[in-house]
Amino acid sequence: MSSNLKKYGFLALKILAAAAFLAAGSAKLVGAEFMVTLYETLGVGQWFRYVTGAIEVIGAVLLFVPGRQGFGAGLLMVTMIGAMLSHVFILGVDTMPPSVVLFIITAIITYTHRDQLPIVGKSVSA
Q1: Which one, of 73, 70, 66, lies nearest residue 20 by Cα?
Q2: What does the alpha-carbon distance between residue 62 and residue 108 come to, in Å, rounded to a whole number?
């Protein structure tokens, strides 16, 4: 595979992820009726909608901050694990939710920027 294809394909993944998380996070923060209803159904409280929305917007922005892409993608990846578990175990969704696709995309971004993340077991000095 050519380096240009890899470069622009990876950029396209980051743009797709950022757009999805900015849209979803913004909908949560502004209190879109669908999101309010979703969080009522989940039973976790509306405060959690604000927290999740903020994480999604911040994570999306971090995807383009040099040296912080790995952290942003990791944050979004963990958020999608929670979304997948919620869809399956609380909402009872039996089809593949979009959170699975977003998890895969953010996992790829996290892996690509893994050098930015602290290594488990490695001492980090301040």
Answers
A1: 73
A2: 15
pTM, 2 dp = 0.86
**Cβ proximity of 80 and 102 under 8 Å:** yes
Residues 99-121 pLDDT 10s: 999 999 999 999 999 988 886 43
The number of residues making up the chain comes to: 126
62 with 68: CB under 8 angstroms? yes
Q: Domain spans of the chain?
A: 11-114
From 95, 77, 79, select the one nearest 87 (Cα to Cα). Answer: 95
Separation between Cα atoms, residue 65 and residue 62, nearest integer Å: 5
Tokens 């979009």 locate to 98
Per-residue DSSP letter, 124: -
DSSP one-letter string for 17-75 = HHHHHHHHHHHHHHT-HHHHHHHHHHTS-HHHHHHHHHHHHHHHHHTTSTTTHHHHHHH
